[in-house]
Amino acid sequence: MSDHVFLFSLRLPGTGQFAALVTDLASNVLHDLGFTPAAIAEISGELQAGLPPGKVGGAGPAEIPEINVQFEARDGEIEIVVWQAGRRILRVSRCLP
Fold this sequence. Notes:
This protein is 30% helix and 37% strand.
């Protein structure tokens, strides 16, 4: 899929298990792009390690501010970027298979 371009992003307000949702979504996107299970596990591990713990939204001690996630494939590369409170907190990229 290296000759294709796509971009999508999502905003996660409210509560929920943010890290699990993002890594599951990333795994599905990476699988559809043709990444191997080993590469998907590696990238998912990077995402899991870099994402904040807790739930999205609200002000309770186990909750974090709204999160924005962007997936972009262009120029033969996939890039996953996560923002929290308007600040980039995580970026993972790989060459497309």
